Amino acid sequence: MERTVVKIENLVKRYGDLVALDHLSLDIQEGEVFGLLGPNGSGKTTTINCLLSLLSFDKGNIEIFGKKMTPVSYDIKKEIGVIMQNVAVFKELTVYENIDYFCGLYITDKVKRKQYVEEAVSFVGLEDFLKFHPKKLSGGLLRRLNIACGIAHKPRLIILDEPTVAVDPQSRNKILEGIAELNRNGATIIYTSHYMEEVEQLCTRIAIMDKGYKIAEGTKDELKRMIKNTETVSIEILGLSPETRAQIAALPHVYNTAYDGEKLTVYCSGGKHNLIRILDILQKQDLSFGRVYSELPTLNDVFLEITGKALRDKED
Question: Cα separation of 35 and 129, whole Å?
């Protein structure tokens, strides 16, 4: 039986005349990796801050683990780990001391805390850097330290806000593998990112926000079925005539085409044999072409079609 870990009902947050959150409702179930997506200014960060009771709100209700969340809900807060985009560690402390300090905010038993700190160090792979101060760490290692500080006390709910911004590919893979392992070990995760491939890889369910509204929600496959585009066919071809392009545009299920003189792009909605029909037209006219590839819609396609905006690597 599914248990609701986070329940947000009709949340409204205003800044003067600006409505940052407009009757937002979300249900996040135990064991999910829940992706929270939106362009800059959509309200993602405001949602997280309200969820953590760092911000007051004008209307609505927030429950975590079945209890009403308030600024003094310390019994709930000790079960939450937060890793924000901006690294929050103490420059004066070493790697080990930082993790020990943040773990100690929740775990008072010294033996248990030592065990938890060592497990967090091992989990993020910082064994060789325990005596380093943060300024000596690379960007990727600093992100790993930030994560270790947020998860050392073994929280049941983990909020990760852009955890892989500006890190090298090796560190990014290490972080993503770690997040998946945290989830396998029982943590419910709220994940925000501007990298759609990360969301596709990690998230079991996704909500897309814009201007404080939740405009779409579902699994990645459910979201992809909401948009018009079901297949994009690209063909490298020179000298394609307007007449031939018009023939292709008239095919069943083709709703748009684009041609830049070197590559033809055909956008399809539905149908199972779009590529075969397109190639048939080219072959009948004895036209030479290069690389051909067909792509199914991605989350980025969903995001662009639903919001009409591109994601940028900035905080909202």
Answer: 31
